[in-house]
Fold these 4 entries.
Entry 1:
Amino acid sequence: GEDVEQSLFLSVREGDSSVINCTYTDSSSTYLYWYKQEPGAGLQLLTYIFSNMDMKQDQRLTVLLNKKDKHLSLRIADTQTGDSAIYFCAERNQAGTALIFGKGTTLSVSS
Amino acid sequence: NAGVMQNPRHLVRRRGQEARLRCSPMKGHSHVYWYRQLPEEGLKFMVYLQKENIIDESGMPKERFSAEFPKEGPSILRIQQVVRGDSAAYFCASSPPGTGVNTIYFGEGSWLTVV
């Protein structure tokens, strides 16, 4: 079945780049997603990438997809304290009816 | 255009009571999804509904949990005879017709605490 794995914590200094990594198991996944969750709040879609793409850039965010290794990464350039949050990687299930989430990576940004 | 509205935001129930969580989707959205987030866990899919239909309930526990999305009114997630292990954040999401999970918007969640 589908499964998504992420490292649990990442700590960076303000102004540095952050790279959050994710691996997934379903090679037929057509879409992969990154969500952000701030404390006590719901999930906010940051970006998604279609499986026929290797890279997608959106302002400070860069998503890299390595289909061979089933590896997805999110790079945040010039990380700010406001980027401190939990970041979830997700893939769409085969039926297209649900998202399968990883456990989330807590990003801590120190000034 | 208001976002996905969930209420109550926080709910405390004693073991054995019933919990009812409500979700009003965004305007124009006819698809609703419920997810559960246990402490220090990611979100787990529970159920996907369209108006008056359950499309995918593969993530719903077999007992005590039910969901509906009536023709009029909000979607309801109902948990009967709650136990401590039901304590979690329950998130609702909605999407417009024809777009599926690529354009789902999450509500801010309902935090259930069972004492």
Entry 2:
Amino acid sequence: DVAMTQTPLSLPVTLGQPASISCRSNQSLVHLNGQTYVSWLHQRPGQPPRLLIHKTSARFSGVPDRFSGSGAGTDFTLTISGVEVEDVGTYYCVQATHFPWTFGPGTRMEI
Amino acid sequence: QVQLVESGGGVVRPGRSLRLSCTASGFVFSNQGFHWVRQAPGKGLEWLAVIWRDGLKSDYAASVRGRFTISRDNSRNLLFLEMNSLKVEDTAVYFCVHSAFDFWGPGTLVSVSS
């Protein structure tokens, strides 16, 4: 199985300041079709996760443009250009290139 | 508006069975694949199973293969997860998820305890 790691696991942030989370896999996440199926999810306490970014860098419908995704191969990053109070919670990366799909351990972001 | 709503969770003894359901609305159900994903209390997300749109092909995580069965009824827009031989470590919130991880239900809690 593809192992996904995230750093940091805990991220104290300041409102209005940028923040970034790293996600790494133990093998390339480039699919045979050339796509890289890495997504980022955000979960607030007591709520289901919601999709922020798919295919490494495509922002999902309705997601504010302060969220951006980047990366290639085995290294991926979620960046928030200026943290807002509603951004607190846990962020997960997930790969859907190789079966079985696997999630990162999560990064808890706190203000 | 896409909506997924799980049901069927509850408290069950180890070794017993439980069937979860997920009602879908807001899109053409039969054209979509779906996953079940779970989250143990205070833990991260674990992918469990996927079923493709025709219902003929499904795949499972090693942790549940042989015990859990995913199925669907396209005539009623329903997704199921049949869980057998439940273990204490199966205690979690179970989410029904659209194929691209873009839509999630609110989850249903399964508690396995003696």
Entry 3:
Amino acid sequence: AQSVTQLGSHVSVSEGALVLLRCNYSSSVPPYLFWYVQYPNQGLQLLLKYTTGATLVKGINGFEAEFKKSETSFHLTKPSAHMSDAAEYFCAVSAGGATNKLIFGTGTLLAVQP
Amino acid sequence: DGGITQSPKYLFRKEGQNVTLSCEQNLNHDAMYWYRQDPGQGLRLIYYSQIVNDFQKGDIAEGYSVSREKKESFPLTVTSAQKNPTAFYLCASQFAGVGEQFFGPGTRLTVL
């Protein structure tokens, strides 16, 4: 069965520092992978997705992620954190099979210190 | 504007009452989903529907019910059988086939 593990429920960085949020997945089929961002009391917004093709995926707000099959990872990075990046981030993998379901990780809360 | 709407934004319920959360989409998506979100637990799937007049239980369906009479609408009823209904509820929709889900703004339900 497909699953997602997000290492670190809380991550804190200084403004201008590198952001690295970790996501590892387990999938019995070629995975489709997603990163979402959630601001307080709001819905989830898609940051980026990997389906097929180029393994380095660029998303909105300067974020990118690299699909590494050998490491079963899909870590999210941003070179320079901004105060507005403070939010919760969710990694998700497609469930495969006959459904369109996504399996979500438990989330990583990113704090950005001035 | 295309999108997903959820209403109300905030909902208060007395114990023993059923309440219905609304979810409407005008994206012409086939599939719709309901999730429950609690602090530190991520998103847990309650029910999903891939086609009109058909729906399936997710991981935590007990105490909830849904209907899918129209493609655009997927209301969720939280029944009195749900023992701990206070949570943030998110609705999402998706085109047929594997792809991203689009989320509504959420409804925060509080049981008084």
Entry 4:
Amino acid sequence: AQSVTQLDSQVPVFEEAPVELRCNYSSSVSVYLFWYVQYPNQGLQLLLKYLSGSTLVKGINGFEAEFNKSQTSFHLRKPSVHISDTAEYFCAVSDSSASKIIFGSGTRLSIRP
Amino acid sequence: NAGVTQTPKFQVLKTGQSMTLQCAQDMNHEYMSWYRQDPGMGLRLIHYSVGAGITDQGEVPNGYNVSRSTTEDFPLRLLSAAPSQTSVYFCASSRLAGAHGGELFFGEGSRLTVL
């Protein structure tokens, strides 16, 4: 069965600084990987996804993530964050053998002015 | 564009009461699912459905029932509510099932408190 680990429950950064949110997964088969964002009091929305092909995936709002199969990681990055990026970010995985999407525990990104 | 609609948005129950959380989508999505969100635990999959008449268990199915009689609706039933079921519940749908990398579209959530 697949699982997802987000090592950091909270990440504080200063505005305009770079940020990396870490995600590691475990699965015995080929995986599809996702990052979702949840703004306060809202549902989740998709930031980006990796299905196949290029390991560097670009998403909305200037975010990108890199799929690293050898390290089983899918870290999310942004070169310069804004106050509006304050939200909770969830990594998720599904595999080719099951119709389930499993989420990590989330990372709360807080931006300091 | 309605998307995924959940009702009610807030509900308070007493232990042992039953209730149904409603979820409807107007995007003709085959795949629908229910998650619960608890602090520090992220989203945990309760039940999911890959089409009308087909349902399956997720990570935390105990205490919950689902059915899928139409493509549009996927209600979640709590037969005998317990305080441990206090949570925020999200319904999500996808044109493609998770195995095909489909994007999930989420409702706004239903906040349930069991006293």
